[in-house]
UniProtKB/TrEMBL annotation:
One of its GO terms (molecular function) is aldehyde dehydrogenase (NAD+) activity. It comes from the Eukaryota. This is Aldehyde dehydrogenase. GO terms for biological process: aldehyde metabolic process; carotenoid biosynthetic process. Gene3D superfamilies: Aldehyde Dehydrogenase, Chain A, domain 1, Aldehyde Dehydrogenase, Chain A, domain 2. Keywords: Carotenoid biosynthesis, NAD, Oxidoreductase.
Length: 466
């Protein structure tokens, strides 16, 4: 590729409070209130992303061996589309809303809902889709008129450095700041008061974020992971199941919060589903995933070891794949036949290329098992006929559902978890809504006093005329 990607430099702990106070001051000086100012920022941001597309691709290759196709679809291209969608719609989204039908007297008070920015906000990103998941929420935060402090994940260091370069090349330096670092730097950020914190990552860190926000009553969005089930009924097409489920696990080598964690497959279909996985793997990677340019690597040694011990400890039988190479941080897409939902393959989020299959007697058993592992996963993937899918949806809970598919989330639909997979949602219009305060405004004209006087004491006899 030939482009030079900068090294990640952590921000000094002393500098952090000063940077936050600059961002807060910029908000209090109303610098981001003007919608045209926000649009200029977003347009500059768009061109900076475009200008750095090669560096984005190189950083994703260095951090995750992410294939160029996946970078263009799910990182740079995704962000560019998001900025275009936002800038096209912003004038419409910021418009005051009229209140719904009401009493005549209230109508004269012109009740409206303004979309006010929240203030100075913090975005903390995850490593797996570093650009999309860190800068995606930032697009909405800028559009809504907030000043923003951005903390990319240190686990994708090259991507974090390129994000900083893009932000510093395009955005107003008083309003938007990138802070780099690991746990101590994030803790220093969390010690400050924010007007909203948007966190993408694991549930354990999510709890730390929510706890740190509580003393300041700071609202939080938690975009967490999930132990996402796929339910494959007897009416499903095994080939479709295998191709789509394999795709969801080879994308970023399974380091994808929406990919299925385990499959509950109707017993008579299990052999066919396993065979179709083998066929699909051969079709997608004729020479094997290891030598293919279209397969990512595990982000680092810690995650590699975590995944290795998951596979070492399973009581299941490996039906496909199972090879790994620590030096290369390579783990092959691996299908494992397990005999209990309590197998560690099902009870932990793998965040890797594992496809555990648990045979079930019928749809009712599948639903009951899915509801038992994690009652509220981020995604749920039913495969079957219309009636099966409808039954599954109406007897489960999850952040989202992709019927006869996996991992898929259409970018204009709200995206977020429920219960243990988090709270709050963004994407499309929700990316703007999540960053504004819907502020109700009423104006009581002086001439309305004759009508309003009904509210003043003495109350005697007034109820009858109310
Ligand atoms: P993580 O929770 O380890 O880290 C996320 C962020 O938190 C990073 O920026 C990191 O610096 C910071 N952090 C880590 N430890 C911290 C601590 N002790 N105190 C304060 N900050 C800390 O998550 P990850 O490994 O980057 O991502 C994997 C997890 O994120 C998976 O569970 C996955 O499902 C989830 N995820 C969710 C979504 C979503 O949109 N719902 C998207 C991607 C990933």
């Amino acid at each position: 590729m030939g482009v030079q990607v900068p090294e990640l430099q952590f921000t000094s702990l002393e500098e952090i409070p000063e940077r936050i106070s600059t961002a807060r001051k910029a908000f209090l000086e109303h610098r981001t209130r003007d919608v045209e100012f926000r649009l200029v920022q977003l347009r500059k941001f768009y061109w900076a992303i475009k200008d750095h597309e090669e560096e984005i691709a190189e950083a994703c290759a260095l951090d995750l061996n992410k294939p160029r196709f996946e970078v263009e679809v799910a990182e740079s291209g995704w962000l560019l589309n998001d900025v275009v969608f936002t800038t096209r719609n912003l004038h419409n989204w910021v418009k005051d809303e009229k209140a719904e039908d009401m009493d005549l007297a209230f109508k004269f008070m012109s009740p409206t809902i303004r979309k006010d920015p929240l203030g100075c906000v913090l975005v903390i990103g995850a490593f797996n889709f570093p650009f999309q998941l860190t800068l995606g929420p930032v697009v909405g935060a800028i559009a809504a008129g907030n000043t923003v402090v951005i903390k990319p994940s240190e686990n994708a260091p090259r991507s974090a450095a390129v994000m900083q370069k893009i932000c510093e090349a395009s955005l107003d330096p008083s309003c938007y700041h990138v802070i780099q670092g690991g746990v101590p730097e994030t803790q220093a950020l969390l010690a400050e008061r924010w007007d909203k914190i948007f966190f993408t990552g694991g549930a354990n860190v999510g709890r730390i974020i929510a706890k740190a926000a509580a003393p300041h009553l700071t609202p939080v969005v938690l975009e967490l992971g999930g132990i996402n089930p796929a339910i494959v009924t007897k009416n499903a097409d095994p080939r479709l199941v295998a191709r789509r489920m394999l795709w969801a696990k080879l994308l970023n080598a399974g380091q994808l919060c929406t990919s299925q964690n385990y499959l509950l497959v109707d017993k008579p279909l299990v052999t066919d589903v396993v065979e179709e996985f083998k066929k699909a793997y051969k079709e997608f990677y004729p020479q094997g995933a290891k030598v293919s340019p279209d397969y990512s690597r595990i982000v680092n040694g810690t995650h590699f070891q975590r995944l290795k011990s998951m596979l070492d400890n399973t009581k299941g039988k490996i039906m496909m794949g199972g090879t790994m190479d620590e030096k290369e941080l390579y783990i092959e897409p691996t299908v494992v036949l397990v005999d209990s939902v309590d197998d560690s393959m099902c009870t932990q989020e793998s965040f890797g290329p594992f496809i555990p299959i648990l045979p079930v007697e019928n749809l009712d058993e599948a639903i009951s098992l899915a509801n038992g592992v994690q009652a509220t996963p981020l995604g749920l993937y039913p495969f079957g006929n219309k009636a099966d899918v409808a039954k599954i949806i109406s007897s489960t809970r999850s952040g989202g559902v992709a019927c006869n598919d996996a991992a898929l989330h259409i970018p204009t639909l709200p995206f977020g978890g429920v219960g243990e997979s988090g709270y709050g949602a963004y994407r499309g219009r929700s990316s703007f809504d999540v960053w504004v305060h819907r502020r109700p405004i009423t104006t009581s004209p002086g001439w309305l006093e004759s009508i309003l006087s009904i509210r003043y004491p003495p109350y005697a006899g007034k109820l009858a005329t109310w």
